Amino acid sequence: YKAKSTHSGHHVYRSVDNRHGDARLRTLQELRLALTEDQLILHYQPKINLKNGSVSGVEALVRWQHPERGLLFPDQFLTLVEEAGLMHALTQEVLRKALDQSVLWAAQGRTLTVAVNLSASSLIDGDLPERVGTMLSARDLPATVLMLEITEDFLMADRDRARDILTRLRASGIKISVDDFGTGYSSLAYLRDLPIDELKLDQSFVFPMADDARAAALVASTIDLAHGLGLKMVAEGVENGVSYDELVRYGCDFAQGYFMSRPIPAAALDDWLTARLNAAALP
Ligand code: C2E
Ligand code: MG
Ligand code: MG
Ligand code: MG
């Protein structure tokens, strides 16, 4: 494909545009390959129950093991996936992999819930509850192993649809978490209205709490707000022991963060879990 170029004055810009266009096209082809050639992998970050220190579950986070560019992170390719209309395929792939991993954990006697992130475009799909149900039953997994993380933009985009889809998912036993809580444009009213289980406080509120009393006060009040509405609170981005201890004091239910573990491959998680259990067993 060659763009028609007539004005010589635009020549430089057009050739720059073309270069970008070629790169884009190549990336799109690579993205399709990523899906067909099994280059997408999941890393798992543990989620700690702050009441007793146990590991309640993990969050699955997608990475692209690119044949030349190495390990790519979501911010390097998710926008493209969305633009290429491949988000639906990615979501299916991530769900499949996360649930396959759940089967392995169940066989090892590990009781872990797995949380999968859903883009607004994946959730808006009315067949999602049924498809997820089929994937669970094909693996003999109870719906309670799965948690879906959604964002406020989905909740606000089409409230009636959101309510319908969430209600159906939740009726089957799947738990719903509102990710990046506090950063969206939503109104607080949806917290009262919509069928959700958990709020996941965005890391931008958690990062400053260790050395900023007002930031800490905001976190503490948000935890109370969640509890007042019968919701669980998860803090993400816990990077140090000071924040961890404060969250425990404020009654936060769960936490994730580099302080406990980065997202890691399933095999590394297995070692991490074993080491943690052994440490807990020490007198
Ligand atoms: P998220 O769901 O809010 O995930 C949290 C992000 O923060 C992850 O980045 C995680 O690695 C990172 N993180 C966790 N603990 C800490 C910490 O203590 N400090 C800092 N600085 N960062 C921490 P990641 O894996 O790069 O994912 C970025 C975003 O990409 C996710 O944000 C999620 O919105 C999206 N994403 C990831 N996987 C998927 C997926 O399978 N499907 C969809 N639709 N989106 C995904
Ligand atoms: Mg998430
Ligand atoms: Mg988040
Ligand atoms: Mg995020």
TrEMBL record:
Residues 24-277 form the EAL domain. Keywords: Membrane, Transmembrane, Transmembrane helix. The keyword Transmembrane helix applies. This is EAL domain-containing protein. It comes from Cryobacterium breve. The chain holds residues 459 to 741 of 741 of the full protein.
